[in-house]
Amino acid sequence: MRKKLFFFATAVALAASLSWAVQHQAEPASTKLQITQCALKVSGMSCGGCAEAVQQRLLKLDGVKAATANHKTGEVQVEYDPKKTSPEKIVSAFNEGNSGFKAEWVKPKTKRD
Ligand SMILES: [Cu+2]
Question: What separation in Å is there between the alpha carbon of 104 and the centre of ligand 1?
Answer without folding.
Answer: 19
